[in-house]
Each structure stands twice: as C-alpha cells, then as structure tokens.
C-alpha cells in the first residue's frame, strides 16, 4: 500500500465513507468530519504515518487535498 | 444575487462555517453570509482582536466590503447579538438594514456573569463553557485539541469582557426578532430588548441551553424565512 492509499484508507475508516467521496472533501462537509471527527482523523494520521503534527498544521488541515499538501510539505511524506 | 443579504455574526469561538446547517435551509431569496471574525480559518493570519471597539469595527469592515446595495439583515448569536445591537443602533454600515435577529443574549443594561469568564483559569473557563451546553465532551479527553478548540473561545470572551453597555438613546432602528432559551443563564431579563429597539419586536423561545441552535436549525431558518419575506 503506497502513502496515498494509506492516507485515503485512514479517511475512509475514520469517517466511514466510500472512496468516491474523498476528492474535494472539506472539513464539516459531512457530519462525521466535525471537531471530534477532526480529532480522530488527526490521531489516525499521526499513528498511521508515525508523526506528531504541529498545532498550525492541525488547524490548517481543512480538506482531503490540503491534508496531503501539509503532510508532503512539512512531514516529508511523498504521495 | 438579487436577494436580501443576511450577515450572520457568530457566538464566541464561532467561525464562517458555524451556521452552514442553518444557512442551507433559508429561502433562495436570502443570501446568508457568515462573518469570519479575525484570527480564524481564512483570517488566521489577521490575528485575534481583544478589544471590543476594534473587534466591532473589524466586523463592520467585513460587512461593508460585501454589501451589494440590496436590503440586508443581521443575525447575531450571543456575542454576535451584542455586535448586531451596536451595528444596528449606530447605523455603522448603511441605512438599508431591514431586520435584526438577536439570539441567545439577554439584557445588555447590566453586566453579564459571562463577562467575567475571560479572567478564569483554563480549567474553570472550560467548565463554564461546557455548562452552557452544546459542547462535545469527548474533546475534553485530548488536551491538545481542547486547547485548539478553546483558543478562539477564550479570545472572544476577552472581547466580551471588554464590552460596556452605553445608553446614549440610540436604539435598533428596524424590526427585530429575539430568539432565546428559557434555560439559558445568559438570557436573563430577555424582555429588556423591548427598550433597545424602535421597531416591532417579536420573541421566540426554543431549546434547552445557550446553544439551542444546534438542535433547532430548521426552526431558526423558518423564523428567518418568515421575517425576511415580510421585510
């Protein structure tokens, strides 16, 4: 499983949504991605990629695509 | 859009997405625009504002930039209700304001107990916010997330602590609707709004706590649709 597949899987498992809902998905677009859902998603990503995210990055993590951008730019995770 | 603009001023800690569930239910002829307070989401780089008058005029600038010449309305929730009152009575934007919605905020004539929350230590402050209801207590289990969530709330309570009611005779100069919960401790002496508005004022009671909106989006939208249809 490459990083993009792993990243997508974390989203799908955390929010219990199918893959075709991931593209363009933004914070609070779905009921599951509320403040608690965000907390769970970040915890899953930190565990999954063995990283600890900065506060600014957690706040900026506002969409499926933005998350990949942050992980790529600030945590050397290649997609 | 040719409809009436509805500028929404969120509660402490709120942001431009806080009213999305309600906004999706308002009529097509209403253009809801939720104000983004300085320091959050798209305005994070602008930093927090802690002084009430500075905060107020930042909101006025946000609204003024987005006015399109159509009639408009204001909806304030809690802290946003205080801002709504000042923008309306001081006519800080323009004279086409049609209606003011005041939500979850009681008497402004006397200091509110919640104006003292800003001076509390973090744990006590959090306890007070949790007591107001509408708070997902699962966030309490993660101190890092709790800090992220509470930061804008604490900053907005600093703004609220800086507010001083000024009775200079100017009142809200359009019709108004007050929406509140009897069980909200921050809605004391709610009928005092009668004395702060020159227009017709209606009252609607709903919900079980300060954040009654979270269980009543449809009812809120229905009231808005009804009032702005007639405005």
Supply the key terms:
heterodimer; A: 79 residues; mainly alpha; B: 231 residues; alpha/beta; six-stranded parallel beta sheet; 6 helices; 32% helix
Walk me through this protein's architecture:
The complex is a heterodimer of chains A (79) and B (231). Chain A is an all-alpha fold and 79 residues long. Chain A is 58% helix and 0% strand. Chain A has four helices and no strands. In chain A, helix 1 packs antiparallel against helix 2 (35-49). Chain B has 231 residues and is of the alpha/beta class. In chain B, 32% of the residues lie in helices and 15% in strands. Chain B contains six helices and six strands. Chain B has helices at 20-23, 52-66, 79-89, 122-131, 143-161, 217-230, and strands at residues 4-9, 30-34, 72-77, 97-103, 175-180, 201-205. In chain B, strands 2-1-3-4-5-6 form a six-stranded parallel beta sheet. Chain B is globular, with a radius of gyration of 17 Å. Chain B starts with a strand and ends with a helix. Chains A and B meet through helix 2 and helix 3 of A and helix 5 of B.
Short account of what is shown:
The complex is a heterodimer of chains A (79) and B (231). Chain A contains four helices and no strands.
Ordered list of secondary-structure elements with their pairings:
The complex is a heterodimer of chains A (79) and B (231).
Chain A (H helix, E strand, L loop, with lengths): L2 H13 L19 H15 L5 H6 L3 H12 L4
Helix pairs in contact in A: 1-2
Chain B lengths: L3 E6 L10 H4 L6 E5 L17 H15 L5 E6 L1 H11 L7 E7 L18 H10 L11 H19 L13 E6 L20 E5 L11 H14 L1
Parallel strand pairs in B: 1-2, 1-3, 3-4, 4-5, 5-6
Sheet-strand content of chain A, in percent, reads: under 5%
Which parts of chain A are unreliable, with pLDDT below 50 for 5 consecutive residues or more? none
Residues in helix, % of chain A: 55-70%
The chain-level mean pLDDT of chain A equals 94
The H/E string of chain A reads: HHHH
Q: N-to-C terminal Cα separation of chain B, in Å? A: 17 Å
Q: Residue share in helices of chain B?
A: 25-40%
Report the C-alpha radius of gyration of chain B, rounded. Answer: 17 Å
Work out the number of β strands of chain B.
6
Count of alpha and pi helical runs of chain A: 4
What Rg of chain A is obtained from the alpha carbons, in whole angstroms?
Answer: 11 Å
Largest sheet of chain B: 6 strands, parallel
